[in-house]
Amino acid sequence: MKHVKAAVAGVTGYAGAELARLLLAHPYADPIFLGRMGSTETTSLTDLHPQLARNDGKPSPEVVPFDWELLRAQQVDFLFLATPHEQSREWAPVAIANGLRVIDLSGAWRLHDPANAAVYKLEDHDPSAAAKLQAETVYGSPELHRAEIKDARMVANPGCYATSVILALAPLVQANVIDLSRGIVVDAKSGVSGAGKAPTTKTHFMYAADNLSAYAVHGHRHTGELLEQLHLTSEDIRFTPHLLPIPRGILSSIYLRLREKSTPAAVDAILRDFYRNSPMVRVHAPGDLPQIQHILRTSYSDIGFDLAPNGRDLLVVSCLDNLLKGAASQAVQNMNVMCGFDEAEGLR
Amino acid sequence: MKHVKAAVAGVTGYAGAELARLLLAHPYADPIFLGRMGSTETTSLTDLHPQLARNDGKPSPEVVPFDWELLRAQQVDFLFLATPHEQSREWAPVAIANGLRVIDLSGAWRLHDPANAAVYKLEDHDPSAAAKLQAETVYGSPELHRAEIKDARMVANPGCYATSVILALAPLVQANVIDLSRGIVVDAKSGVSGAGKAPTTKTHFMYAADNLSAYAVHGHRHTGELLEQLHLTSEDIRFTPHLLPIPRGILSSIYLRLREKSTPAAVDAILRDFYRNSPMVRVHAPGDLPQIQHILRTSYSDIGFDLAPNGRDLLVVSCLDNLLKGAASQAVQNMNVMCGFDEAEGLR
Amino acid sequence: MKHVKAAVAGVTGYAGAELARLLLAHPYADPIFLGRMGSTETTSLTDLHPQLARNDGKPSPEVVPFDWELLRAQQVDFLFLATPHEQSREWAPVAIANGLRVIDLSGAWRLHDPANAAVYKLEDHDPSAAAKLQAETVYGSPELHRAEIKDARMVANPGCYATSVILALAPLVQANVIDLSRGIVVDAKSGVSGAGKAPTTKTHFMYAADNLSAYAVHGHRHTGELLEQLHLTSEDIRFTPHLLPIPRGILSSIYLRLREKSTPAAVDAILRDFYRNSPMVRVHAPGDLPQIQHILRTSYSDIGFDLAPNGRDLLVVSCLDNLLKGAASQAVQNMNVMCGFDEAEGLR
Amino acid sequence: MKHVKAAVAGVTGYAGAELARLLLAHPYADPIFLGRMGSTETTSLTDLHPQLARNDGKPSPEVVPFDWELLRAQQVDFLFLATPHEQSREWAPVAIANGLRVIDLSGAWRLHDPANAAVYKLEDHDPSAAAKLQAETVYGSPELHRAEIKDARMVANPGCYATSVILALAPLVQANVIDLSRGIVVDAKSGVSGAGKAPTTKTHFMYAADNLSAYAVHGHRHTGELLEQLHLTSEDIRFTPHLLPIPRGILSSIYLRLREKSTPAAVDAILRDFYRNSPMVRVHAPGDLPQIQHILRTSYSDIGFDLAPNGRDLLVVSCLDNLLKGAASQAVQNMNVMCGFDEAEGLR
Fold this sequence. Notes:
Chains A, B, C, D: Pathway: Amino-acid biosynthesis; L-arginine biosynthesis; N(2)-acetyl-L-ornithine from L-glutamate: step 3/4. Chains A, B, C, D: Residues 5-152 form the Semialdehyde dehydrogenase NAD-binding domain. Chain A is α/β, with parallel strands linked by helices. The first copy, chain A, has 2 domains: 4-157 and 327-339, Rossmann fold (3-Layer(aba) Sandwich), CATH 3.40.50.720; 160-320, 2-Layer Sandwich (Dihydrodipicolinate Reductase, domain 2). Chain A has 12 helices and 15 strands. Chain A has helices at 14-25, 45-48, 68-73, 85-97, 114-117, 127-136, 142-151, 160-174, 205-208, 223-230, 264-274, 328-339, and strands at 4-9, 29-37, 43-44, 62-66, 78-81, 101-104, 138-139, 154-156, 184-190, 213-214, 237-243, 250-257, 281-283, 301-307, 313-320. In chain A, helix 8 runs parallel beside helix 10 (223-230). Chain A is globular, with a radius of gyration of 20 Å. Chain C binds chain D through residues 182-183, 185, 187, 189, 207, 210-214, 217-218, 234-235, 238, 240, 242, 244-247, 249, 251, 253, 255, 257, 289, 291-293, 296, 306, 308-310, 313, 315, 317, and chain D through 182-183, 185, 187, 189, 207, 209-214, 217-218, 234-235, 238, 240, 242, 244-247, 249, 251, 253, 255, 257, 289, 291-293, 296, 306, 308-310, 313, 315, 317.
């Protein structure tokens, strides 16, 4: 199998560390790690993330200053952007122009409807070029857009919450079984790593520990992804995130009513059919609801459901690790699809 | 103020420990603590709960064997039953027959509709006497039934989840503003103490820590309380509890749609009006959602809400400490009402 | 009992919040709360600390700008300084000059030996006046210095770690039973609130949770207090703090060898004799080691020990809540002693 | 490389699950999983441990009843015993007689001195055969006994605490630099998984969370391993374990005094020299103390130290994951050595 050269920009954060770990262990990837543009300092990956030290006698991978020349010289194929969205918005077009394929882990390129994208307050140097790149960008959910991702130059890796909700609902939306007049309620809960590495009032241990709080009640940035990918309106679905007192993991409890009375077996069939060829989604047996513990530090998304005795009220529970299937492993999964590797390569 | 003699049966559990603490600090209560009936062993309260040791030179309160004679001899006024529901079902009628006033913290006497009560699988020695006592039992939610509680002989202290939901919804149900055709979704989360002191697979640290799981998805025992107290049917409301990786605290996220477009000020007025004379409910300002940290180890229930831009989709968040307002402090609050004390006596 | 007017400067932090709570509930204290000097903004205590809201119809206590005039006008008796040590170093002499009695919760006035105090890098406007005030400052450990505290104008409230170690060792040092040639090892562990409210890399949930780390291995600021109060040298005792993944609580494991073979009863007698009249220290029975859970949110220090079969190797375990006996409740205890109140007033 | 057939008995516990995970991913191992002897029920590994489900279309590995015939028929080379020590004591001689090589993860075969082994209260059917097998059993610490392990038939996998202490101290004991007259203090802390999967009072979330407690103060079962492997007496070293409120990870803080004044570089040299060819031990730079977070879910043991300004007082901090280097990964490491594989095979 042909190896790919994969550069990672933004390796200091939690998702960046996981991405580095996965690419270093990937049998067909040769990763290089990029720090700040314009810096002259080369650092060591294991100084940033001591848990990655391998003690195998080889030097720690370097984190070298970001430099387009270097990427050309090294014949890099892929650029992973684990950068703030302003940075991703600026760099992605340059990378594409340089012949790279890009997987962007920020929110900068996920939204096609400018009304939804407005939450990111992006400013483009060349708005028409940006609009053109936006138009060709594929939303990097392999379970929904595998074919387009395969040939894409530019992939926008989904948000963590969005992934957990979209994977739970897409099969039911496609099967057209949801009674939208009743509305869909998504009560989502995430561990603290989702709030990023910057020390803030909300990421302080004394705030997050022994606590639970709802936040961003209207207008969480991931809402736009739900609406666009599921073809829903904000009248159809309500999405409320909560901050869990755990390091990582997302559990979304999704409440909806079916148009018509159904059975657990029929709901199960809809899910299994949809995910028949999706190695990173584990569909649970009816009534067996996923929990965070079983997806922690795995690349899987677990989906389960419970159908009420009335045959119509459905609870779907969706779990994933926000740093893996919600970020880094989904990015690698996209790379696998783009390269024609086994979709689960390096992810089990 | 006249002092009351208050006996507590079932002081080994978490709620029992809190009840003991509150009654020992209550200015008008003289508590005595009861262990197993038929036992001959007197133990010490602080052996059971070392954190209660006062180091004031006085001996620790005793836990004496349960004995109806003793209650008579000591001229006990009140009997708190923090006992398993089978025990409460058996002892409450005897206590009433002995002239005691009873506050039962179990689920045994909360439900009036036998269909709802069936979840407890209660067996009565004298079914007609039990039915009579059930009929006169008052559901011990002072905010809803203050007047009846005042004169009651028999009070059924509400469930912890039920309290958090009923207090959030009762004002809106009474004001008749909820669009029930859209349904109400209650996504509730509780700390592990709610699962009791017995070591089980689910209370093992390795199960509960760094985890989140939904459970009892249909048919949680507290559902019947919601339906009866809020005059709703199971088609109107869905209630799903989750196990949080924290010791105590409940947060319920409640989703509903208003019949007609409204304003934050109007919703706020409904809540404040309802709780005007309720010292143990703290209504938050519009948009300021309660969180578990602020009610931990307090006797308050905190209620807040967020009204969506469409003026109809309402999120109500309700928090309380499951061992206090969800159990022990609500029991003391009921005693205060029954005795004509200040309702918040000993609870701030 | 005569009431005292007690002003608290520095009410935004964790210890300040606990101090406010204790003084508001104290039967003989009328507290007022002070914010920044020179500010013109009055805020509300419950805006800072929502958990303190009493819902009793009365307005929340105000936090008014710090102003010496105001303290005079209000005839304040006591000034609690829960301020950074530079601030405490500057304000304490002014307060004393204004006739106030001061209890300082910072480290600024705890150390008499300038070599030890150097860790705080204090700069005095008037060094000789500062030295004079330092000389009269009493170390606010009521169990060691009750008589001096009673008459003191200026009390330096001890550090949290220092309190846990000093209370464990003082009886044994006084009884002269420790074999110092073997050395004393103090392995101390504290919850995250000890690191303060400022968001930093180390107080980030992702750093502190599911982790344990040693820090400040040589030269923790509290070391000087141990040496001065216990009359030891740095060759005699080693003190290493660790950061626990819990919000609050300190447990110190203290290892030493006795000069001569002894018995549990004899060690027990030394501890009980020393603490006979100390209401805030709970001495455990031999072999019954304290744990953090039993002192959480109490004002007690718990001390227990285990004597090895060889009759000489002694483990002393000392627990306290770093925000209470390690800060706020010890400050109130000092106030109680200074005013002739019951030493435990408002602390049980 | 020749593949090995490796049977695992006792796959229901935490260490068993990790062992299964490692062997399934090991490039040269074909694992089979064994349940109860005499049972007739075959179950699925992923029913026991849902987090191991691979979703790769292949059936989950089976857990078949333990049966010596089956092991013979399948030509099993290795038997891992992750069983209670009574079981291991009984089965190991049978396995050896059947020509298998055995790695026992229990405590049954670790101790050579019967006085130390007495804590396990083992009863042997054939005491002289057991003594003979005990005599040939190699203590499975590859860093200390690599050569003997290579040829061993019977390896006793070390205890988790013992590994953390022995790896920290062995280089210093061998270099003969410790002043034993001062004594060695080991203050060890472990996550809750070390207490096993059975629900008990101490593994209840409400006991372990937000708590810290010392236990087994004298006579923890792992003490004998320290003494035997480090050639120390109980007068030389004191070992106290504590229960941390985290799922997994051990940190041991080890205090000792050097015979003679030394330098950080000299201590560093002793450690690095000892571990030059040990891939699973990561020696930290002087002053850089390991923490639990960096070894969690890795197979490494991290060792760091801090030398006091006096050049003699040394703190060594040793961290490992109790389920990996403290159990399952050390077992696989032993298998690697015994088979002539790369020692780190399947462990990075």
